[in-house]
Amino acid sequence: MKTTTGYLIRPVPPPVLAEVRRTGRDACGQPLERCCAEGGEPLRCCLRDATPGEPLLLFGYAPPIPAGPYREVGPIFAHAVDCPGRADVTGYPADWRGRPQVLRAYDRRGRIVGGRRHDGGDPEAVIAELFADPAVDRLHSRNVVYGCFMFAVVRP
């Protein structure tokens, strides 16, 4: 797939979400929690903020890196039912523009090789800066306060 940005934005993969919904278990085998959105919860299925009243799931998720010491499990929100996901895989999520985030850089082995906090004003510049290092295979966007995985940024 050709992109104008040179990278792709990846939410939690639909097959992972389908398995969580089917089994009712998260990455650690723990039961997921069903809840009703208060509004503003970051949804990792479609990369937008939840609106009040939406049925949600809260569960532990292991972001996509190879197994090893840097792989971790953390809490994320997703729609309780199948959602269409995100149509634009090349643009930064509109709901999260302007929101401070951390971009953590990983190499092909899944080792952290850098990272940077940004204020959300020009995340594309920070993404380009981190991807300028040929050792960087992927980035994970992380919530600044809670440290939760938001989405992956990968080379096409």
Offer a quick outline of the entry.
The protein has 2 domains: 11-79, no CATH class; 89-154, no CATH class.
Quote the beta fraction: 25-35%
Global geometry: globular
* Distance separating the two termini: 7 Å
| Major sheet details | 5 strands, antiparallel
Radius of gyration: 15 Å
Quantity of strands, as a count? 10
Which structural class do you get from the secondary structure elements?
mainly beta
What do the pLDDT scores average to?
A: 92
Strands of the largest sheet, in order across it?
1-10-9-7-8
Uncertain ranges: none
Share of helical residues: 10-25%
Number of domains: 2
What are the secondary-structure elements, in order, as H or E? EHEEEEEEEHEE
With helices defined by DSSP (H or I, 4 residues minimum), what is the helix count?
2
Describe the structure in your own words.
- The structure is a single chain.
- By secondary structure, the chain is mainly beta.
- The mean pLDDT is 92.
- Strand 9 and strand 10 (149-154) form a beta hairpin.
- The protein has helices at residues 14-23, 123-131; strands spanning 8-10, 33-36, 42-43, 48-49, 55-61, 74-79, 101-106, 112-118, 138-143, 149-154.
- The termini are close together.
- Helix content is 12%, strand content 31%.
- The strands form three sheets. The chain has a five-stranded antiparallel β-sheet, covered by helices on one side. Strands 2-5-6 form a three-stranded antiparallel β-sheet, with no helix packed on it.
- It folds into two domains: 11-79, no CATH class; 89-154, no CATH class.
- It is built from two helices and ten strands; from the N terminus they run βαβββββββαββ.
- The chain is globular.
